[in-house]
Design a protein that fits this description.
single chain, alpha/beta, globular
Length: 381
């Protein structure tokens, strides 16, 4: 039966490629395939955005082709690469559909890719990452078992530049429920570890093309606000490759992107109060995590955009309102003052330091009130 399904998928993919080459004016949406549950597994289209990824794109494509549940199609979108990415795909993978465009960013590449797909489900795979065996089968099985789900998420592996696995990430341990509050606070987002229903991408309008980083977080926040449900496949299905090209630049851009995504979320007038009240904590946790992930030279830029957004939003009187955690800041005085005075590490009366957390003694730039401050985090004693 699997052989028949694979053959049928291959025929449909070949026919669609031929039709596009003969009559490119026919929009892909008019040929959309919506495989029903009764006729077999939902068809999955794999979209691979690529930019200067000649070294890695071959492994990415092979990992998608080697799935136990073969994808309906694999679409590579070259985002104006100036290396041999296009040549590698054309030479080694003639059966893969290749789209090219001028360099417009990963969001534009993903949007062009998924809008050209024909499957009911979409899996995104960055050209420098790779799928693990059985990914599509496991996540399609979950989506088939619950038609109300719009996203099947999973764990992932971290790999080095050579593809050797260094560690495993199991986000369901700290974020078991993928509701809006979880997306806001913890942001367990890694697009390659997900499979999404195309209908939800259409409703959301795809990725925000003005964001060069954190566009995946922005999309998941918007989807969750629209009522899109998500659930875990509690196993790793994807490997995220870490390599040194542009690490500093991407870290700074991600800080700006996450700040923009949160700004847009909390600007929505219809946002539930239960989520709106998480804004201060969400911004603080975002800044805290990013400050550990990006080089120190970017810490001032990060703090000005993320941490200072909440630094003076919490007044001393708000400490008695039953919050489990609050952030507080204390002015440093003159710009040349660099001494770490011990009094800045003293908790407010009635509060104590959470286990495993220490007050952060790094200058975070000029706050909205015009002073320079250090942030600290406390909880009720």
């Amino acid at each position: 039966m699997k052989g028949i399904l694979a053959a049928e998928s291959s025929k449909r993919s070949t026919a669609a490629t031929t039709e596009n080459s003969v009559n490119p004016s026919v929009p892909a949406e008019s040929k959309s395939i919506r495989t029903s549950r009764g006729s077999g597994p939902l068809a999955v289209s794999v979209v691979v955005p690529a930019y200067n990824a000649a070294r890695f794109v071959g492994q990415a494509i092979l990992s998608a082709q080697a799935q136990s549940l073969p994808p309906l199609e694999i679409i590579v979108v070259d985002d104006g690469s100036d290396d041999q990415t296009v040549a590698v795909v054309e030479r080694e993978f003639p059966q893969v559909r290749l789209l090219t465009q001028s360099h417009r960013g990963v969001s534009a590449a993903r949007n062009r890719g998924w809008r050209a797909t024909r499957g009911a489900l979409i899996a995104f795979l960055d050209a420098d990452d790779f799928f693990l065996p059985g990914k599509l089968a496991a996540q399609v099985r979950l989506l088939e078992s619950n038609r109300r789900l719009g996203v099947a998420h999973s764990g992932w592996l971290i790999a080095d530049e050579q593809g050797h696995v260094t560690r495993q990430v199991t986000p369901w341990v700290y974020a078991p429920d993928l509701d809006l509050a979880t997306w806001v606070l913890w942001k367990p987002v890694l697009l390659g570890a997900m499979v999404l229903r195309r209908e939800w991408l259409e409703r959301a309008g795809g990725f925000a093309e003005d964001l060069s980083q954190a566009e995946d977080v922005d999309l998941l926040l918007r989807l969750s606000c629209m009522g899109c449900r998500a659930a875990w496949v509690r196993q790793p299905t994807f490997a995220y490759r870490q390599h040194g090209e542009g690490t500093s630049r991407r870290g700074a851009e991600r800080a700006r992107g996450l700040t923009t995504a949160l700004d847009r979320l909390f600007a929505q007038p219809a946002l539930p109060h239960s989520v709106r009240r998480l804004e201060r904590k969400a911004r603080y946790y975002t800044a805290l995590c990013l400050s550990k992930a990006i080089p120190r030279k970017w810490s001032i830029a990060l703090s000005r955009q993320s941490l200072t957004a909440t630094a003076h939003a919490i007044s001393p009187s708000s400490n008695g309102r039953g919050n489990s955690h609050v952030t507080s800041t204390r002015p440093l005085g003159t710009p040349k003052s660099g001494a770490r005075c011990a009094r800045y590490s003293v908790a407010p009366r009635g509060w104590t330091q959470p286990p495993g957390l220490r007050p952060r003694f790094s200058w975070i730039g000029r706050c909205a009130c015009g002073t320079r401050s250090w942030p600290a985090i406390w909880q009720r004693a």
